[in-house]
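Internal tracking record. Fields below are filled automatically when a chain is submitted to the structure queue. Please do not edit lines marked as system-generated. If the sequence contains nonstandard residues, flag them in the REMARKS field before resubmitting.
Queue: standard
Priority: normal
Entity type: single polypeptide chain
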Amino acid sequence: MIVLVTPAVMDGTVVRWYRSLAAAETHRPILSASRRGVQTHNDVYLHEIPTQVMQAANAAYETLRRDPDADLKHLATHRHRGPSNGPLVPVEEADNA
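SYSTEM-GENERATED OUTPUT FOLLOWS
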């Protein structure tokens, strides 16, 4: 599971879960959490989402409901490297660059 944490103009911080790196690179999340709530995407059924992912999404929503700009970077597994949303790299690699 790939997790990205990004700022959004209208929603503040948004956390998105992806099935794979390819899905993340093509912007096809299965689930997202923002101050507005937890939402499924791309015709994903709730029973297909692992329990721990749903729990993390609900916790992220509760945090973002109180503070839309909360720092949830600790949830991220990958980040964009470079300007203009460059390639996705694991957090450890991004932090050591």
